[in-house]
Amino acid sequence: MDGIAVAPYGPKWMANRKFFYSAMRTMGLGKRGIEKCVIDEVPYIVEELEKLCSSDELFEPSSVFDPAVLNVLAYFTFGNRYSYQDEKFKELIHINNEFFQKAKFLNQPEFFLVTLIPGLHKYWLPQCFRKIHKFVKAEIKHHRQHLDPQNPRDYIDCYLNELNQTSDQSELSELGLEMSIMDLFQAGTETTATTLRWAVLYMVNNPHIQENVQSEIDNVLGFDQLPKYEDRTRMPYCEATVLEVQRMASITPFGLLHCSEEDQKLGGYHIPKHTCIMPSYHTIHFDPKFWKNPNEFDPCNFIDPNGKVGTRDAFMPFGGGLRICVGMNIAKQELFLFFVAILQKFTLQLPDDVKSLDDEPIPGMTLAPKPFRV
Ligand code: HEM
């Protein structure tokens, strides 16, 4: 196992994770910093939503969020974004979503059979995994042919440069690059797009909160000024609302599986070596010890008495420890900037005959709202 999310704790995981951070820094200094990738996507989201609204038909917001978040990662890794109508891109979204659905199998007991019988994974791996792999390999081949070592354009170029400079003993490899990209797509698209769908759901179910958000946007940005990530310091209510969406939705209720490397003591319990551990972030996010009215959607959970946004130890949407989400800073920027840009231009409403949306999630590896239309 190579890459980041699926790699076991060890030198390969460490090298790929470290490389991801260093690429973010390198690219952050250039024209294609992650914030630019996100901001550049905003006009396309607005345009797509305008098109959908003008038809008077209700629509499911994932038709906009899926391509938008995948485009940010495509921009970061492949160096270009795709038109939402591009057939190749539609196919990539389809196979990426399909793979995510299949990956729910990872939480089932059958998965342990796959890990116990050597070689079985070759037969079990679903077709969509092979398709994404083929797509990523083709992009890497294309990048290798057009690589200019002095001007790395994106994540793949930075990684290839590093491979060309390092020795055979390096823990980085072409397979590590392929797996890392697939991890970023897998871990970084459904999670972010699903959180945005929850944001829409909570806004239509709580119109008074939507009004407060919009009035802050009107005061700080007006109707035309594009939001920047630094604006969040002047927009505490919007920032707190996004954090509250993450708490209430708790889309990764158990994070990823962890395993103790040694015998450990934790909270007075003895954890033997090689115990499988699933932290329950969902429990922490709804614990009345930490939250006044945990079952109520209330952005004030994150606003301190001075009106400033403060986070809490009992808030862990991105997990914690050594394996904390590597895409946390990308996701935070996407959530804030997309959320603000949408509510700057649109008011989200339910059809006349619907009072509120069902906020019971569909159970799974991530907690998603049931399909809905606005
Ligand atoms: C709202 C969006 C997101 C949420 C809620 C989320 C949440 C998480 C959580 C809970 C974990 C597991 C941490 C643990 O086991 O303690 C994780 C891991 C991970 N996430 Fe995210 N994530 C999000 C977005 C992203 C994005 C945008 C990317 C990529 C750009 C990404 C890439 C990863 C990777 C590669 C890992 C595995 C890290 C490792 O094992 O070292 N995630 N994420």
UniProtKB/TrEMBL annotation:
On whether RNA-binding is a keyword of this UniProt record, the answer is no
Q: Name one GO molecular function term.
A: steroid hydroxylase activity
Keywords attached to this Swiss-Prot or TrEMBL record, sorted alphabetically, are: Heme, Iron, Metal-binding, Monooxygenase, Oxidoreductase
What are its cofactors? heme
User: What Pfam families does the entry give?
Assistant: p450 (PF00067)
Return the similarity comment: Belongs to the cytochrome P450 family.
Q: Which protein is depicted?
A: Uncharacterized protein
Reply yes or no: does the keyword Hydrolase apply: no
| Membrane-spanning intervals of the chain | none
Q: State any GO CC term.
A: cytoplasm
Q: Which residues bind heme?
A: C325
Q: Which InterPro entries match?
A: Cyt_P450, Cyt_P450_CS, Cyt_P450_E_grp-I, Cyt_P450_sf, Cytochrome_P450_fam2
The UniProt entry's GO biological process terms, in alphabetical order, are: organic acid metabolic process; steroid metabolic process; xenobiotic metabolic process
